[in-house]
């Protein structure tokens, strides 16, 4: 493709410096810009649920409350939590509710080589380094009027921490190789799975930057501590599979109970990947406990039976007026939890073993049903 044809197809790219015959360094710069223009802004990513926060656990409700509080404010937000908990989803939700007209721009500080990070964030002027055949705006400028999300801020090199601190204090940037101060109108949201106070103590993160970033901190609990969100999350992932791949999927009660008992070291991302995999292997089918992969399936023999002859009669009858099954089952669950706690003298760990569920799952159910007297 000749330079003139490139200009026609990509009029927004800085290709004025291209001449024929093409030089490889000049062409590389243009291709880099074309790639950046397609990857920098993420306004419509269906895999993140378009910024929706799924779940109704106390922890998720708390996050939703904080998001609603801070969204319209220009305050810098620091989102913390384990990898895969949905930090970018929270950042997108803040942006969606902020009313800012500009784009949502995301950068993963740990995914960009240290020697390229400054140019990526702040841009560069022509001739700033060997391959800088034309000037280029950085991500801060591209996020003008919108939200700039710095993911994995805990992995940012020390020299860049100093430069970012200046941006937060003065709200201006300088391109690499330039001397002009460029004002930036962006809302900054940072996120990390690192323990920043520990990294400060180790001398690996600046304390002054930490306080600048954590004007409004939001911590996202790991999925194992909010197991009551799992069913809602699974329903959402199934909905996406249906909309995107026309695949119908459903989980049996035993399979769902295994999901709720699993520790989910990969958090929501791991759950999403599992549902996507099962949508392929169990197309238009029902997922049973034995269909779940290791290590979930290894505990399927520990699943308590929903119907037990010691708990129920040999037959079940419905009242003529019918019942609210969800409320009826919740009542039974609450009563069984209370009995288990009483038998275990209020010790949650022992009660969880009697019920065949994990301790964190039982803690969440105790909180949901507002049951007192547990330790």
Write the layout of secondary structure elements.
Blueprint lengths: L2 H7 L14 H16 L18 H13 L6 E4 L6 H12 L5 E5 L5 H9 E2 L11 E2 L1 H4 L4 E5 L6 H13 L1 E2 L8 E2 L3 E6 L3 H6 L5 H7 L2 E4 L10 H16 L3 E3 L1 H9 L5 H15 L3 E3 L37 H19 L4 H8 L3 H11 L6
Parallel strand pairs: 1-8, 1-9, 2-5, 5-8, 10-11
Antiparallel strand pairs: 3-4, 6-7
Helix pairs in contact: 3-4, 7-9, 10-12, 13-14, 14-15
Question: Would you write up a description of this structure?
Answer:
With 375 residues, this protein is an alpha/beta fold. 44% of the residues lie in helices and 10% in strands. It is built from 15 helices and 11 strands. The chain has a 5-stranded parallel beta sheet. The longest helix is centred in the last third of the chain and has 19 residues, at 325-343. The protein is elongated and about 80 Å long. The chain starts with a helix and ends in a 6-residue tail after the last helix. Mean pLDDT is 80; it is low at 5-17, 33-50 and 303-314.
The general outline is elongated
Sheet with most strands: 5 strands, parallel
What is the beta-strand fraction?
Answer: 5-15%
How much is the radius of gyration in Å?
A: 26 Å
| Structure annotation, total helices | 15
Mean pLDDT over the full residue set:
80
